[in-house]
Specification:
Number of helices: 9
Radius of gyration: 25 Å
Helix content: 10-25%
């Protein structure tokens, strides 16, 4: 196994899973006492989620310097990290590096392991989470939704991190009722549509910064990696023997599990396939009924999908009456803005967000610091059945679970010997037609 290298000038990647921990420093927000604890760190976890607004993580520290009293740790401390996979940082600036300053919000599992040392776990979160906890807004907002989100993140959350925003097509006006920044953005996500009329916006932080983008936007990003289950391919050396390629080791799936193949009852109850919306407007006193059909929407081909084909056939037992949504609207609540509720997006957003996780796979792979949540990957899963010598590669691929996925969540697990990534991959579609069985 490879030891963790401490020198940033050492950019040699010896084996897949190699990692450089250049900096782990803790300091107090009150007196700026600063300690490097790189050598005291036993393990690091760094977690990102496509549907969570902030990064989180934890450190396991073996402390023989009495940091708890020397800092002291009182809940006002920060941590600075810089971790990278060798060679990935060369010529890439800050891309491919896990780095930043985070707030230590909790200490747990303190255990003495001798007279002069103890082990404990420090939990950290993005600094911006502190502002979100302490800010409650009572004011009105109006204008294009993407512009309002930019104002909330940059001016009120006060971050200098990169903000990636996909421009919305629609505008709105509303009053924040003592909501936090994240609560405001969550409200706006439910109303947002892009130029493809997709209502799949999500707000999340990844290694590159904050993102307010639709799943459609993510579906069109380049593939960061292809993953294969089974044995890694080897190079044959001259004179005999073999040597594994590092890039092929990175693409090998070490562990794979499917927590839930499908849940028909949940899809029916949630309105994934069909739904009926009944609204009553307080101003006009009118009722309106709108039916939603997943396959009809899918076949419009305006929105993007990860794969080509839908997750069901026209024969699915799903009627619009299975899911009935009743809600109220108020036309012209704000002059010039008509209906400012999320009624027009509700059915499509509900269905699309459930579709996004129609297929979910958990994998463990060799770690790289350029893996981050929201990236697109491709999986090649072999069928769990006997194979013949004359089988083609297409005949050995599990068509149901292979295909393009998004990294829905990722946990970087780093210790003194290796870096591994635990990924939750999600996809909204299939790479073969359920009606014909062909790709």
């Amino acid at each position: 196994m490879a030891d963790v290298k401490r020198d940033i000038s050492s950019n040699e990647l010896r084996v897949a899973g190699d990692v450089n921990i250049e900096k782990v420093e803790v300091f107090s927000g009150s007196n700026q006492s600063r300690f490097s604890i790189t050598n005291q760190v036993i393990g690091i976890q760094f977690y990102e989620d496509l549907f969570a607004p902030f990064l989180t993580g934890s450190l396991v520290v073996k402390d023989s310097l009495d940091l708890i009293n020397n800092m002291p740790f009182v809940g006002q401390e920060f941590i600075e990290l810089k971790i990278f996979t060798p060679t990935l940082d060369v010529g890439m600036g800050d891309q491919g590096i896990i780095q930043g300053r985070y707030y230590i919000y909790k200490m747990t599992e303190r255990e003495y392991v001798g007279d002069k040392s103890l082990v404990y776990q420090l939990h950290f979160i993005s600094e911006e989470a502190l502002n979100d906890l302490n800010i409650k807004l009572s004011r009105g907002f109006q204008g294009k939704i993407s512009d309002t989100v930019k104002k909330l993140v940059k001016e009120i959350l006060q971050t200098d991190k990169t903000l990636t925003i996909e421009e919305t097509k629609n505008a709105t006006r509303y009053v924040s009722n003592y909501w936090s920044v994240v609560r405001n953005i969550s409200f706006l996500m439910d109303q947002s549509t892009n130029t493809n009329d997709s209502s799949t916006y999500t707000f999340f932080e990844n290694r590159d910064g904050f993102n307010f983008v639709s799943l459609d936007w993510l579906n069109e990003q380049p593939v960061i990696q292809e993953f294969f289950n089974g044995n890694a391919t080897q190079d044959v050396k001259q004179g005999g023997g073999s040597a594994k390629k590092i890039d092929q080791d990175f693409s090998k799936i070490l562990e794979l599990s499917v927590p839930s193949g499908f849940d028909y009852i949940d899809r029916i109850a949630s309105g994934t396939y069909t739904s009926r919306l009944i609204t009553h407007d307080y101003t006009t006193k009118r009722y309106k009924t709108v039916n939603y059909d997943y396959l009809a929407k899918f076949n419009e081909a305006k929105e993007t999908r990860l794969n080509k084909y839908p997750i069901t056939t026209p024969d699915v037992a799903a009627r619009v009456n299975a899911t009935i949504i009743v809600d109220e609207t108020v036309n012209n609540l704000f002059s010039g803005f008509g209906d400012v509720s999320n009624i027009r997006q509700m059915q499509d957003r509900t269905s699309r967000m459930k579709q996004a996780e129609a297929f979910k796979i958990n994998i463990k792979v060799k770690g790289r610091t350029d893996y981050t949540v929201g990236q697109r990957v491709k999986l090649f899963i072999t069928t769990p059945s006997p194979t013949n010598a004359n089988d083609t590669p297409e005949q050995t691929v599990d068509q149901m679970y292979s295909g393009y996925y998004l990294i829905g969540a990722i946990n970087h697990v780093i210790d003194k010997e290796k870096h591994e990534c635990y990924m939750e991959l999600i996809k909204d579609s299939l790479q073969f037609d359920l009606n014909t069985g062909k790709a």
